[in-house]
Write a structure and sequence with these properties.
Shape of chain B: globular
Strand content of chain A: over 45%
Radius of gyration of chain B: 14 Å
Low-confidence stretches of chain B: none
Number of helices of chain B: 0
Structural class of chain A: mainly beta
Strand content of chain B: over 45%
Oligomer: heterodimer
Low-confidence stretches of chain A: none
Largest sheet of chain B: 7 strands, mixed
Chain lengths: 113, 117
C-alpha cells in the first residue's frame, strides 16, 4: 500500500512555542487530513485540505496541502498544555473511498510548562 | 453524547481464545470501519462496511471477521486470537464511504485495548 512518512516522531516543546510537523508521500493524494488523538481517546479531525496549495486554519492550527500533492504540513502557534497528544496526517487517494485512506505514524507532542 | 461507542475498553485473552468487539453509532451513518493501531504505525484498516448489508476487506483482514448487524452496529470477531493481534482497535463511522468532502468525516470511538498472551 501507499506509505506516508510523518516527522518528527516526537517533540518536546515549551509552552508558548510554535510547532511544525509534516508528512511526505511517494504517491499523489487528492485530500490531506490532520487528526489529533488525546490519551485514551480516538482521533478527532482537526483540518481537512482538498486542493493543492490550499492553506487552511483552525484557531492556532494551520495546515497546507503541498503543491506537488505529495506532502502536507501542520503548524501550531503559541502552544498550550492541552495541545499534548498524538497528531496524525492522513492522505486520501484515488476516488476518495475510505479504503484508500492512508495514515501517518503520528507525531507525539509534549508541551512543557 | 452522540458518537461511536466501543465495548469492551480493555480485554486480555490467551492465545487461541475467541472474542467479539462491539461497536455502535447513533449518528445514522451508512459506513462503518474497524482499524487497528500499533506502536510506530499509522492506523490500518481491517474491514469496513460501506452500507448496511455489505462488508469488505481492508488492508489487514487476516484473522478477523466482521458482522454489520444493522445500520447502527458493526462487530469485529477474533476466532482464534494470536499475540500478533495485540493492539488498540478503533471503530469509526462516516455518512458515506467517499471521504473527499468536508461534509463527510470519519468519527472514531475511544478504542478497545486488546492484549493476547
Amino acid at each position: 500500500g501507499q506509505q506516508l512518512n510523518q516527522s518528527p516522531q516526537s517533540m518536546f516543546i515549551q509552552e508558548g512555542e510554535d510547532v511544525s510537523m509534516n508528512c511526505t508521500s511517494s504517491s499523489i493524494f487528492n485530500t490531506w487530513l490532520w487528526y489529533k488523538q488525546d490519551p485514551g481517546e480516538g482521533p478527532v479531525l482537526l483540518i481537512a485540505l482538498y486542493k493543492a496549495g490550499e492553506l487552511t486554519s483552525n484557531g492556532r492550527l494551520t495546515a497546507q496541502f503541498g503543491i506537488t500533492r505529495k506532502d502536507s504540513f501542520l503548524n501550531i502557534s503559541a502552544s498550550i498544555p492541552s495541545d499534548v497528544g498524538i497528531y496524525f496526517c492522513a492522505g486520501l487517494g484515488g476516488y476518495g473511498s475510505a479504503r484508500q485512506l492512508t495514515f501517518g505514524s503520528g507525531t507525539q507532542l509534549t508541551v512543557l510548562p | 453524547n452522540a458518537g461511536v461507542t466501543q465495548t469492551p475498553k480493555f480485554q486480555v485473552l490467551k492465545t487461541g481464545q475467541s472474542m467479539t468487539l462491539q461497536c455502535a453509532q447513533d449518528m445514522n451513518h451508512n459506513s462503518m470501519y474497524w482499524y487497528r493501531q500499533d506502536p510506530g504505525m499509522g492506523l490500518r484498516l481491517i474491514y469496513y462496511s460501506a452500507s448496511e448489508g455489505t462488508t469488505d476487506k481492508g488492508e489487514v483482514p487476516n484473522g478477523y471477521n466482521v458482522s454489520r448487524l444493522n445500520k447502527r452496529e458493526f462487530s469485529l470477531r477474533l476466532e482464534s486470537a494470536a499475540p500478533s493481534q495485540t493492539s488498540v482497535y478503533f471503530c469509526a463511522s462516516s455518512e458515506y464511504v467517499i471521504l473527499s468532502s468536508g461534509a463527510n468525516v470519519l468519527t472514531f470511538g475511544a478504542g478497545s485495548r486488546l492484549t493476547v498472551l
